[in-house]
Structure prediction request, 608 residues.
Amino acid sequence: MFVVFLIYLMFSKFGKIRLGRNDSKPEYSFFSWISMLFAAGMGIGLMYFGVAEPMQHYSSDVFASNDYINREKNAQLYTFFHWGIHAWAIYAIIGLSLSYFAYRYRLPLSLRSGFYPLLKEKIYGKWGDAIDVFALCSTFFGITTTLGFGVVQVNSGLEVLGIVPDTSFVYQVLIVGVLVSLSITSAVSGVDKGIRILSNINIVSVICLLLFVLFAGPTVYLIGSFTEGLGTYITNFFNLTFSTHVYEEETLPWFYDWTILYWAWWISWSPYVGLFIAKISKGRTIREFVGAVLIIPSVFNFFWMTIFGNSAVWFDRNVAMGKLSELASNPDALMFRFLEYLPLSSIVSFVVIAIIIIFFVTSADSGIFVMNNIATKNAKKSPKWQVVFWGISLAMLALLLLNAGGLDALQSMTLITALPFSIIMLLFIVSLMKAVIIDRDYYERSFSMSAMPWSGERWKERLKRIVSLRDRRSVDEFIETTVRNAFVELQKEFSDNGIEARINSSKNPMKVEIEIQYDIVNNFIYGVRSQSKSVSEYLVNEDNLPDVDENKRYIPMAYFGDSREGYDIQYFTKNELISDVLKHYERFLTIVSEERNEMFISSNSNKK
Prediction:
């Protein structure tokens, strides 16, 4: 359902809707945006399972009856399935809902806001508190599970390199203490500093490690297996999506231990990753958001799992003679044992540990940041001790669960919290669909049939304007005379009808607007501003347009208070401009009278 819904949104007319005002721009570059969402969403898991999962599938009894070629294909296929579009669809549902309601409706960046179309003002009461509390618990346990994976892998890597003598709990305590301290420091510095910088550093480091393994390993085999694996994944996409293995009793335990556990893991992480993705996604369109979040990280994950997993399988079959398969039950050390078959293994192992540490820090600091946002109801400022509190709490719970039952305890906690939240995610779909339908109808609402069209009077003057391209001075003069005179006349008429309207203006750029203020609903604004446009070179040299003597023209552009797309009004007479304002005012009154549009017309829409 998540995957189908997102693909529908991406290719539908709703895909053009922007996560913010219609004129809003993204806050981060595309590279920084992808780096941050990737590091927050999959980091430690890729390092832990990059070699371990393909090797475990390859050596599993479930696939033991197949020859080694089919076992390799199945290992790659199910790894792609677990780390591909289906996983990122879970994150995208939460991230898209939160960013849409936060930036489009100007609601708090909080899980409760995603239920506004269903609960309305109740999101600010006990219902909203309950949703946020549950999201906070789910996030807390989901992050703890992943950090536990990171701790045991760092510990195992240090043991392989001879830095620590064993993987006892004492060393795990020391590792957690150091890494969580770094995470708290990064979280206190904020998204724009610590998290963004570490994410950019990490993605570059990961790409360098990936290229090293690609060229130091069986390169031709890896490139070919990636291509074939991608084709196999696409071919089996729908079969994988709907398969529950209900008719294959021998594979059911494997299905529960892998696929079901993964979906639970992703769902438990979705409040955290979704909130973080929403925080950095303002200004993107729905189509851009869904396409990037579903496809780019998935393709990278496929390439990563192919390079590391298929390299390990190839080495196991051709060089190690089954020694790596024997270590499949010890995933903590499998990555480092695999690196021993590559050149510069010690140096590369240190690099891997450094990447895991940075992934740990970026995951933990992003998690601390998001949990603090949930707990403070997205307050703009919160005391730093609160950030420290969440960091220490993560560390304590991770150590408690590791000491109590290791990774099994962590995974059990993940499963417990995931099922109820999956129900909440289905309600997110209902709420988001209801909202985008209203959104699209709002911005596409046409005028009533009584709206006046252009008149045929003064057509000679209008033709002269059409074939001449105007300079800045003439447009400014048009705004100061025709537009202002129209607005002044309208203001007087509004006043005679008991409606208070005011005229606002500025010089650079030249603009004049008429505004009618309201306490409960959004203000009505109709304005005209001077806007420049480039003129093509061939048009400048066209003899039939003698007024064109430079590569820039200016036009008087209408704009509106709800950020709908404006249009050129340079051919309007004063009376036609008055008529156009009244058209929009009539449309405004019609829309504010409809209860379902309250999210767009509420006074919150006046807040910048």
Q: What stands out?
A: The longest strand covers residues 524-534. The chain has two domains: 2-83+140-265+275-416, 459-606.
